[in-house]
């Protein structure tokens, strides 16, 4: 939602209207892989720990999310982050909670907080702001100013969509000088053996970190003031689903590089098998076409590490529905190199229009009685 006015306190009504969507729908993209059939513990998802909740725990992302991208008063950054952390720890604690926000208990509610380059620059480690520098990708030049960047990210996730708006609104009331840039409800469908489908109807997020070692190597920041944190890239894409569906089934598979029904790569094998980029037909044609998404996005072409993806679908209106791409990595260039390649060679990008873009430092978790963001000051 665009807001050109001076900073004001955000009402719950304004927040939910600004989101412009409901959370009731089918489909969705999937990120980090959980064991098939794994359920979220009934006792909830602990907010305290070396990492914030909502990045790697729960392992299977919840079915609904509300993303809020805003600006804030950076002169009060330490106080604001401390207040947010206190409220998050309280509202996600099943033994305490905030009854007016989650009357049936917090369930699997998680809240993930990130800050943008301006906020990092206002911390005690201003040099870290460069960690969030993104190049301009195809379509970014057409974005309005309030859809590029932002200084605060609140990712509120839960199986119960009715608690998202009151929780996000309450947290925004703790933020000094809050001015919302945009917000969006997201949803995802029921996963099949740990993987879900995107709005195009194809399995999404198959090449992902599969071990704790890969998470340490590629996703989490290992040292410095952000140790235990990560970098989130968020891109909102309006998708031309109708145009994509007008392609023949064979053309759709060739655009993606996988079979829709099974998710198997066109080079052969099962869904979770590696794509064989060199596989050819007897007459020498590539089995995975030169401009297929599975080829364009393959890490081998950019030398990139793996990204942890926890993306969602959204539907804001009849002519604005698509994909909330959310990835976590410990180097923003992991995403940047991949997206630049997609812009150049991916046939699927013809059906995707970026409508928002930003990068945030996801703060380390709270432990040993420390405030959220304390390591930055």
TrEMBL record:
PROSITE patterns in UniProt: DYP_PEROXIDASE, TAT
PANTHER family: DEFERROCHELATASE, DEFERROCHELATASE/PEROXIDASE
Cofactors, names only: heme b
Molecular-function GO term, any one: heme binding
Species for this entry: Protaetiibacter intestinalis
Domain of life of the native organism: Bacteria
NCBIfam families: Dyp_perox_fam
Protein name: Dyp-type peroxidase
InterPro entries tied to this protein: Dimeric_a/b-barrel, Dyp_perox_C, Dyp_perox_N, Dyp_peroxidase, TAT_signal
GO cellular component terms listed in the entry, alphabetical order: cytosol
Region (Disordered), start-end ranges: 251-273
Domain Dyp-type peroxidase C-terminal: 197-366
Keywords: Heme, Iron, Metal-binding, Oxidoreductase, Peroxidase, Signal
Domain named Dyp-type peroxidase N-terminal: residues: 52-188
Similarity section: Belongs to the DyP-type peroxidase family.
Pfam families: Dyp_perox_C, Dyp_perox_N
């Amino acid at each position: 939602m665009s807001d050109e006015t001076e900073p004001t306190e955000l009402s719950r009504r304004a927040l939910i209207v600004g989101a412009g969507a409901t959370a009731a729908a089918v489909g969705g993209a999937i990120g980090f892989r959980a064991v098939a059939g794994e359920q979220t513990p009934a006792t909830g998802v602990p907010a305290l720990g070396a990492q914030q909740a909502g990045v790697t725990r729960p392992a299977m992302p919840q079915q609904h999310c509300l993303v809020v991208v805003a600006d804030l008063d950076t002169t009060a950054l330490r106080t604001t982050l401390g207040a947010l952390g206190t409220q998050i720890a309280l509202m996600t604690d099943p033994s305490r909670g905030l009854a007016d926000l989650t009357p049936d208990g917090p369930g699997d509610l998680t809240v993930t907080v990130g800050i943008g380059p301006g906020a990092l620059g206002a911390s005690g480690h201003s040099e870290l702001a460069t960690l969030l520098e993104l190049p301009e990708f195809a379509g970014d030049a057409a974005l309005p100013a309030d859809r590029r960047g932002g200084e605060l990210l609140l990712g509120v996730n839960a199986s119960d969509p009715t608690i998202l708006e009151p929780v996000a609104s309450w947290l925004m009331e703790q933020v000094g000088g809050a001015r919302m840039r945009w917000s969006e409800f997201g949803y995802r469908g029921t996963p099949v053996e740990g993987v879900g489908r995107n709005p195009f109807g194809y399995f999404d997020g198959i090449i992902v970190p599969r071990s704790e070692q890969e998470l340490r190597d590629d996703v989490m920041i290992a040292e410095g003031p952000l140790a235990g944190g990560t970098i989130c890239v968020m891109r909102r894409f309006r998708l031309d689903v109708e145009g994509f569906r007008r392609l023949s089934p064979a053309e759709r598979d060739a655009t993606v590089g996988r079979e829709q029904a099974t998710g198997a790569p066109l080079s052969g094998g099962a869904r979770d098998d590696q794509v064989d980029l060199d596989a050819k037909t007897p007459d020498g044609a590539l089995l995975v076409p030169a401009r297929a998404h599975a080829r364009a996005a393959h890490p081998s072409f950019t030398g990139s590490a793996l990204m942890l993806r926890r993306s969602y679908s959204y539907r804001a209106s009849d002519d604005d529905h698509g994909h909330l791409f959310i990835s976590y990595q410990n180097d923003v260039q992991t995403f940047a190199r991949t997206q630049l390649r997609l812009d150049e060679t991916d046939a699927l990008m013809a059906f995707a229009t970026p409508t928002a873009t930003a990068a945030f430092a996801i703060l380390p978790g709270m432990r040993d009685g420390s405030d959220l963001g304390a390591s930055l000051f």
